[in-house]
């Protein structure tokens, strides 16, 4: 059972209802209803048959995007420390 990853669609499909093809980034099937690409993973079962398991698009990406912490400048030195000048006594 596959579920279309397009949240607006969300259609469910049996294996024989979809065509799994490798479009260069691993096996995917296109949702027959909305055409969204859904990544699957091919596994060879013990009996030699190929089984497909749906994977989320994020998991299928080769280079998972890390939440890169931005190197924030440490306490930037203040340009000109303001010298508080006290009112000069007269
Ligand atoms: Zn769909």
Automatic annotation (TrEMBL):
Low complexity composition-biased segments: 69-80
Ranges for region Disordered: 56-90
Protein name listed in UniProt: Uncharacterized protein
Domain of life from the UniProt record: Bacteria
Segments of skewed composition (Basic and acidic residues): 59-68
Biased composition (Basic residues): 81-90
